[in-house]
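Key idea: predict the complex, not the pieces.
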Amino acid sequence: MASGPDFEQIRQARERIAPYVYRTPVLRSASLDRASGARLFFKCENFQRTGSFKIRGATNAIYSLGEGIASRGVVTHSSGNHGAAVAYAARGRHIPAWVVVPENAPEIKRRAIADFGAEIVTSKPTLDSRESAAREILDRTGATLIHPYDDDRIIAGQATATVELIEEAGELDYIFAPVSGGGLLSGTAIAAQSLQPRIRIVGCEPARADDAFRSLKSGHLEKNVTADTIADGLRASLAERTFAILRERLDRIILVEESEIIAAMRLVWERMKIIIEPSSAVPVAAAISGKLDLSGRRVGIVLSGGNVDLARFFDS
Amino acid sequence: MASGPDFEQIRQARERIAPYVYRTPVLRSASLDRASGARLFFKCENFQRTGSFKIRGATNAIYSLGEGIASRGVVTHSSGNHGAAVAYAARGRHIPAWVVVPENAPEIKRRAIADFGAEIVTSKPTLDSRESAAREILDRTGATLIHPYDDDRIIAGQATATVELIEEAGELDYIFAPVSGGGLLSGTAIAAQSLQPRIRIVGCEPARADDAFRSLKSGHLEKNVTADTIADGLRASLAERTFAILRERLDRIILVEESEIIAAMRLVWERMKIIIEPSSAVPVAAAISGKLDLSGRRVGIVLSGGNVDLARFFDS
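Result:
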């Protein structure tokens, strides 16, 4: 029996979140086609509300809650795109949100979350401290935890990006998407293979945070001990739930080095004139790496987000 | 009798260039709507081939030439987007191109032109030296000069962007476009007013290169003595031809300061996640400046290009 949400749950998620998220465009690029040898279809979640795909899952999870439960609010302990997405979706539903942010998080991320009206709770930078801060809020308020990926409602929400991608691009040979905790990649795989059973799903991961690669190789859930990568959205490790889905469905994982991530990000900025964050550059780097021969193939690429601190360009 | 190309010439230009240029998207932005009070429709010529609208005019001019004339090649003395566009269009028609580039031009611009296969001729940085270098090539080769704006075929080509904008956006109250030599703005005005006679056209100009503003005020063609603006595409001065068109058709010119240009550029990068060059930020700055009350208005904005040297971000 297949793990994770089924296509009916993805269909429901799509209907539920439609009023609150954008249908983002699918872009082409002659330059990137040349660089990869393939025909690439870029699903531009960098243009999404809050600047990443995370709003899809957060909206689906938060709008799935019954009135009574919802009114007590929601909690998460992600300081990145998921934190901002939970804050945004909670504001849209007029319920309180608490976001646990480690004391060393960049000011720009803290501000994005606060701007969306969530209450920020500062913790030590360890996972332990973040989890216990979240637990304290849950106990005190009766709020609901919105996990960034270990949740079928989140996975079903993230999957909706791939449904739109395939509607626009038609038949695809591959989809490349980044992998961190595996929520986006799991949703991508379930949605794509429900619509086109022979499509191959390629997870793309920084070599410096390669827990998914190692987990699929060993057959056991492995963790990242360090995750010192510029792809700041890809530092988490798989959960049992997402590991089970990916074991069933993934074609392979391609690892990319830091220099490949930066070069791919620059190529997209320069040639496509769109701003993507380093995590989005990971599948682009994988597609142009030559590690998989894509000549003449039709390949979907999920550009997961566009949140980059531009101070370096504008304040220097 | 109206000056410049008529709508029939614009229609022909569109047909002529259609196989060689992109139909660029028209984007919306909730953030920029809030900042301006208007409903903004951004015509994204930053996504255009060669990274700017200039390819439209250059393609129309070059593909208008008869076989015999064309085979002798084309010359221009613009080191910026027009130079790259002429190089690209000439390569497409398999004819030689010479581009006069002043010795102090940035290496990145020189490389873009050379990558498109044009021959680069280096001159001193004065207009005099550039013009005499171009004349020498014309005399020697029998090639045709492709002027960046003082040419009805160029104006008709640039006008095609506005035809597409209006097809997508529908009825508009205003169109904001940048003004430099006036080719884009003239084409914008003719196309827009042919389709929607009551539409108002607003030229947007850096205060540090305000020749068009002064010319329209005095009624005489004024020149920029200096043009020390970050908007490197907007340093040229009007020609008699474009001045005549703009006198007939322009609602007004809005001047913006350097700090407004940079802030508008950053806002577009951060919120819309697209890369625009400083010249494109000039009409955005004008629209959010409050100098014209746009509350509830439907406003088209021509984002003219996206060619920015990203070394500052990636090499630091």
